[in-house]
Structure formats: structure tokens, C-alpha cells
Amino acid sequence: MIIVMESTATEEEILAVENKIRALGYNPHEIIGIERKVIGAVGDERGKEQLQQIESMPGVESVVPILKPYKLASREMRKIDSIINCGGVPVGGKNIALIAGPCSVESREQICTTARLVKNAGANLMRGGAYKPRTSPYSFQGLEEEGLKLLAEAKAQTGLPIVTEVMNPREVDLVARYADVMQVGARNVQNFSLLKELGQIKKPILLKRGLMTTIKEFLMSTEYILSEGNQEVILCERGIRTFETATRNTLDISCIPVLKKETHLPIIIDPSHATGHWDLVESMSRASIAAGADGLMIEVHPDPVNAFSDGPQSLKPAKFAKLVQDLRPLIELMGRSLN
Ligand code: PEP
Ligand code: MN
Q1: Ligand 1: which atom is nearest the Cα of residue 188?
Q2: Is 241 in the pocket of ligand 1 (CB under 6 A)?
Q3: pLDDT per residue over 181-234, tens digit each?
Q4: Is there an atom of ligand 1 within 6 Å of 264 CB?
Q5: 90 and 58 in one domain?
Q6: 84, 169, 295, 302: most buried by Cβ count inside 10 Å?
Q7: What is the pTM of this model?
């Protein structure tokens, strides 16, 4: 349910409504609107009619049901776009986020060089996996905590906030000590224990869509994080599995306008995993920005041929720099900005 407060509602009236929501066994989520305050009451679907009582409380304008199954993520709940603060970099709104870096952190030299080069090219966040979800248990699994330390060194040298993946609920605290944004990989999009754990921390989450996840399922996964209290979620489309084999996955460009309609959260695109080929990254980046994406996550490696993972889809730093240069006029045309 959404409790819409009158524009003249006092702090005391708002507090009384929140206490009533709690007394009825629901969790209040305050949403500061442009003109008035809205309070979301979420919890057990059964018995939500009880919340209707709140309508007669002072300062309350109306109590309206949220029709979508995802409540806190929905546009019904929040009309304006959410802007997520990622280690000082705003993601969402007019801003374009450019997250770049290698698939995996491999060495000090590799991550620090890449971070420096992508920063000079215009990236505002860096990526690099220390815990890698690999199809084969015999493939490189990541440098783990050592990789997180190397990311921290690269951040110290460049100032770029870190986006890195967490795979295991037991490692949330450890990864959160280093990461500015915690990435949930495509394969973990429905790992509800992990999502609930991430809902309890105060760090932005970058949630990747799964290989076979519908948009509705994707938003329900998002809701797992939001409903635990963490409102800072960025959605990431990285291609879905179809019958097509010419590309690693199929980039679902139409998910951008659909998600924009359904949710207030920012949506970024990962054209690297979506296509699997470095030479398709530029055109898909352009298509994503043109379709209204809030940013891109691009794999960049100084020596793709010898990369430990995802070399074929990784751009060399110079190619990445050219891509950013070429994207700038389009970003401007779309009324967006790359800080
Ligand atoms: C990655 O970002 O390196 C990654 C493993 O992506 P995904 O979870 O989308 O496959
Ligand atoms: Mn990768």
C-alpha cells in the first residue's frame, strides 16, 4: 500500500502513521516526493486491508494499493528517477555511468594500468572481478581477497570507485570492505539468501539480469534487496539466452524502455557479456544510450589475447578511449552527461 500524506502533514503526523504501519506488522518506507511525502507499507500480502484504517489518520490524504507484485521497485511507489550514489559518483538521473575494467583482476600491474587508462578515457567507475562465477570449476576462479586488495590499490591511484562481484552470502562483509558497488552476477539473480543479505547492508548493489530471467522476475529479485531496507539498486541487462549462437547472448534492448516504465531505479547495459565479441561492443553501446540506458559496463583489458577470462569480448584501452570519444555527442544529444 502507498500512504500519500497531505502536503501540509507535520512530522508528528508522519511519525504516527509510521508507528501505526509498524503496529499492523508492516515496514514503512519513506519516499520524499517533490510536493509531498509518500510512505510505502510493505509486508505480508495477507491482511493488507487493515492498512486501509490509516486513511482516517490526521495528515493522510489517501491510501492506495500498489498493483504491481514488485512494490518498492515500482514506478507507482516513486515517480521520479532514483539516483544512486556510488562512492561519490551519481548513477541515474541525467548522469551516464561508465564502468570499465577487466573481467577478472589478474595482477597489480594489470588492474592498475587498466584503471589508469580507463579513467583517462572517461570512465567514472572501474570494474574487476575477484570472485569469478565460471562455468567450469577448472577455470580461473579469481584472486579472491588478494584481488580485492589490488582493486583498492587501483582505486587509491585513480580515485575510481570499485564495482566488484560478491558470490557468496558469507563473503558479503569482506567484499563490502573494499567495494563501492557490490555486483550480483547473472547466475545469482535468484539467489534469494544472497539478495536478502545484500538488502541489509548500506552499499549500492548492481544486480545483473539472469540468462533466463524475465523482466518481472528481475524486478522481483530487486524487491528482495529493497524489502530488506537497502534502496540502492542498479539494474544491469547483460544479454539473455536465445536460440541465436552468433553472439554469446542476445542483448534485450527493449528491456530499457520497459524497465524505465516499470521502475524508478537506474538501468545500465553490459554490451561485453551481451555480445561476447569486442567488435560488437561499440554499436551496442550506442544503441543502449539511444534507448535511454543510464550507463554502460564494458570489459577492457590491456592484453585481451592473454586475459584469464573473457578476452574475446574485451576492448583494448585505446579502443575503449575511442568508443567514449565517439559516444560523447550521442550522450549530449540524449540530454545526458558524462562527468
Ligand atoms: C562479469 O561481469 O564478469 C560476469 C561474470 O557477468 P555475468 O554475471 O553477467 O555473466
Ligand atoms: Mn566477464
Answers
A1: 8
A2: no
A3: 999 999 999 999 999 999 999 999 999 999 999 999 999 999 999 999 999 999
A4: no
A5: no
A6: 295
A7: 0.95
